[in-house]
Amino acid sequence: MMFLDGCYLLLYITDDDGCALLLNRMTMSTGPCMLRDIFLLENQLPWLVLEALVDFFIPSPVYDFVISFANKFDITPQCSPASDSSGTRVSVDELKNYKPAYLLGLLRYHLIGGMTVEDHTDDLTCSSLASSAIELAEIGIKLTAKNNTWFADMSIERGRIFGGQLSLTPLFVNDANACWLVNMAAYEMCVSSKWPSDGLAISSYISLLAMLMDKEEDVHKLRAKHLVRSLLSNHELLVFFKSLACHLRLGYRYFVITEKIDKFKRERPVRIALHRFVYNNFKTIVVMLSITGVLAGIFRTLMSLKQHQP
User: Fold this and answer.
1) Which residue from 103, 96, 98 is spatially nearest to 41, judged by alpha carbons?
2) What b-and-e string marks burial along 276-285, b requiring 16 or more CB atoms within 10 Å of the CB?
3) 3-state secondary structure the chain
4) What CA–CA distance (Å, rounded) separates 22 from 3?
5) pTM for the complete prediction?
6) Residue 61 preceded by cis peptide, ω within 30
């Protein structure tokens, strides 16, 4: 059975339009479902089976297929599925040397396989696990999109005097790759204990996005900052990330970011209060300054006329 399933999967990947068995993937009803099913954790064939069959397909389409679908998470897709112009993803040669448990693992490895490993420390005492996108804006932490970085990459920097910057890899979400995202997170939870370092990079990324989304206004802000793009509505994205994050283990990378946010709050209470006041009352302040400027101009004009009177 695994032999037949493996042959069918590889034949599907080769995109052989002359095969009668594959003609139904062109229909609107079954095509997207088949694409989702390829990367479902419960549907995965052992990589040993696929690897044994790959030699019969020359050139092998598997690696280009994985790279092309990894690019579907990008807001700005790569130029070619066979070559990554950003220079930050795992190359085809590196993919060929990697031995995953399943095809799903190969997809994850291409996305984050060369990401820098975080140095572990035991003094993570994060007590603030909820900071929405709007709340971060209020305290002076700007959200920015990372360019040419690993998928699921995230970092935070503090300004010397005011504010800071939280940078995330942008994400495109549709019905298909949302399913792949869920299954990669599930795959991490199954095999993370086998990795020497924290293997929950994608889970951490999902958890952080969910943390940033408390209301639909937060989702709108993430869209405005070009961190998330989707055909789904703000409400649908909010429900998706919140419902998914409830079932994920919080990874080390998530705790690193939230600990830095918490430290930022503890060490700058006065500057945060000042920034929050200005942020929440910015329109009123602008109006008041405009009125003050107009009144000052009128006052100067009256004083000038008074000085010229005989």
Assistant:
1) 103
2) eeeeeeeeee
3) CHHHHHHHHHHHHCCCCCCHHHHHHHCCCCHHHHHHHHCCHHHCCCHHHHHHHHCCCCCCCHHHHHHHHHHHHCCCCCCECCECCCCCCCCHHHHHHCCCCCHHHHHHHHHHCCCCCCCCCCCCCCCCCCCCHHHHHHHCEEEEECCCCCCCCEEEEECCCCCEEEEECCEEECHHHHHHHHHHHHHHHHHHHHCCCCCCHHHHHHHHHHHHCCCHHHHHHHHHCCCEEECCCHHHHHHHHHHHHCCCCCCHHHHHHHHHHHHHHHHCHHHHHHHHHHHHCHHHHHHHHHHHHHHHHHHHHHHHHHHHCC
4) 17
5) 0.81
6) no
Per-residue pLDDT of 170-218, as tens digits, reads: 999 988 889 999 999 999 888 876 555 568 889 999 999 999 999 999 9
Q: What are 242-292's pLDDT values in tens digits?
A: 999 999 888 888 988 998 999 888 888 888 888 888 888 878 888 888 888
**Rounded CA separation 153/43 (Å):** 28
